[in-house]
Amino acid sequence: MRFVSASRGMRNVYRGGFSYVTSGVSFFCFSLLCLIGSLLGHPQCLDYGPPFQPPFHLEFCSAYENFGCCDQERDNSIAAKYWDIMDYIDPRGHKLCGTYIKDILCQECSPYAAHLYDAENPRTPLRNLPGLCFDYCSEFHLNCHSAISLLTSDKHIQECCETNRTHFCDLLHLHDEDYCFPNVLKNTALNRNLGSVAEGRKGCLQLCLTEVANGLRNPVLMVHANDHTHRMFIAEQVGVIWVYLPDGSRLEEPFLDIKSIVLATPWIGDERGFLGMAFHPKYKSNGKFYIYYSYMDKNRVEKIRISELKVLASDANKADPRSERNLLELEEPAANHNGGQLLFGVDGYMYLFTGDGGKAGDPFGKFGNAQNKSTLLGKVLRIDVDGKNPDGKPYSIPPDNPFVSDPKARPEVYAYGVRNMWRCAVDRGDPVTKKGRGRIFCGDVGQNRFEEIDIVVKGGNYGWRAKEGFECYDTKLCHNSSLDDILPIFAYGRNVGKSVTGGYVYRGCESPNLNGLYIFGDFMNGRLMALQEDKTNKWKKQDICIDSTRACAFPGMVSSYSKFIISFAEDEAGELYFMSTSYPSAYAPHGSLYKFIDPARRAPPGKCKYKPVPVKTKSKRIPFVPRAKTVLELLNEPSTTKPPKKSSTPTAAIPTVSSKKAKKTPFTKTKASTVKTASGKKRQKIKAEVKPHKLKQEEKVAPISRTTPAPPLPKKRSSHLTRTKKLLPKKGALAKEKLEKRRKEGRLSSSF
Predict the structure, then answer these.
(1) Alpha-carbon dihedral sign for residues 402, 408, 410, 416
(2) CB contact set of 433 (below 8 Å; sequence gap of 6+)
(3) Following DSSP, what letter does each residue of 426-469 receive, concatenated?
(4) Is the entire prediction scored with pTM above 0.85?
(5) Helix %, strand %, coil % for the chain, to 5?
(6) DSSP letter string, 653-668
(7) Which is it for strands 219-223 and 232-236: parallel, antiparallel or unpaired?
(8) Could you tell me which residues are beta bridge partners of residue 545?
(9) Are 379 and 401 in contact (CB under 8 A)?
(10) Where in the numbering of this chain does the Folate receptor-like domain appear (predicted)?
């Protein structure tokens, strides 16, 4: 067999050194990387993202055309490298080595490419040849050892390994032999559900998170303006709205600050405050948006106000508080069940979701507020904010509202029998078929037995207070044959959760496996759940797991979150988020925003790219600083395990970790700030900047209920804002004692 030397002018196929350690490696490096190797064997590409389904047929690496890490462009590039190499091999070498060389090059396309190249941990140097099983490697070296100099330009490899098969195959050895090539293709356990949403041991859907924002005071919502700027507007319960830019930074000055008007207290679980916001469908041209908040009038009567405001003409990131135009005000008979959702349907009308007035069991009137169509409490309302009413109202009634001709009903009523719908969302519809477009999903908080998910329909009666979930609550009302109520698509009892937080149907681009899943949660126990609709229009529930270090071992991903789930959100591109806090007080800055990520599959590279319309900013940009530790940071924490006994056998193919004491060898890198992949692309090491926020022991609180009334306002309270410090709950055992006392007295509110 004859190979032409690579030194005869051949272009370098791969660059960058082989970075492996010898038997003299410190135990710290050995134990840490062995741990990472055993934990991080999961589908991942060399760019640290999940694999994908190529949009077009792969001509060369066709074994991975259904699922892997290469698109057509990358496949063509690998094919070009292959033919470059084969130009330097004689005909006999073509027959003996062509398949070996193709297989080795195509491992960049494998769904397990990151594991094969030691790329799962960005802090460790990267192989520039994939991990090969020993038998396969031995056969390759026996038949094609002269091709090694064509596969890598590393002189150390060329000098030491062309004649030393054992040393070469030791360098390519993987600690976990299930993942070496070609064994990884034959492992049915690894490939059975490859590309599908991973299921945990308990049958839950395995998703991951990235932390997007933190330090928020009970973030109650995040909305976008649908103006192609891809800004995110996050509102705090106290009445402050912040602008977050596409680069993750926040503007120092808020979009709107009306905390001097908003009625909010620092009491744990208090529902009152800034609760809703929606941008006009034509916001880009008219600059209008709408807000929903609690306030107290001059007579000290608690009310809900829905208003229209405009953005400043001189600053696209500042609202004009003087432009406020009141659309609707509702007197609240109690401090809880304030509703709070505002949204625009696909019909262009605004939908408002009000609570039943509070207390317990909707005790207002003969049948309660929710069943009384002559009151606006406990309802879904629909109005036309662009029309004017002859009666002088600042809005008009859509002509097809279901009760416009009923003299005993308010014409604004679109649906009724609602207890306290907390968070509703419009389904964008399937990206291709548009199936489901326009459906409105809501989570309706139950009394003391069931939480429910509803789809809002025109004229629908959702049963409260006659029913709670699928069961009777008020037996007398429940047996009324004229009830004709709309049943929820899903309901769950107290063994699952105690206070539903409605979510969204995923219709984004980045995680195609999630398309059509309705994702929601429970405020009280922090449980995340998903509903999947089958062909018979029935909905099946699955829990969502976020606690897997193995599945979430990607850069930037976290596998934990703050417990109390306040709200869900959707950005302009359709990606899903949720907001939660570790301390549910309107004045406690412990709230965070998280984005859902499917670690099993992503969209093909380039498919989800968008170019935000630039917005001129006058306020200072505050860069995002994460507080939560990522999975990779946790895995990289020093091991406390004792070192093993020294062995006479050589250590095989373990990548080095940078260390000041590490001795430089031909196969060790100690200070490389960047390394190159087999394709020649540079990648930077990632450094943790800050430690995660930890809740102080005295701040931890017992779970709160959302089904009992809120505490009355303190006496002689001229301004709840100037007395914030005095109203803050005392910490430690005394705070828990006060919480328990309020719970027994029925004074804790049903927040979120």
Answers:
(1) negative
(2) none
(3) E----TTT-TTTT-EEEEE--SSSEEEEEE--TT-B--TTTEET
(4) no
(5) 20, 25, 60
(6) S------TTPPP-TT-
(7) antiparallel
(8) 206
(9) no
(10) 57-206
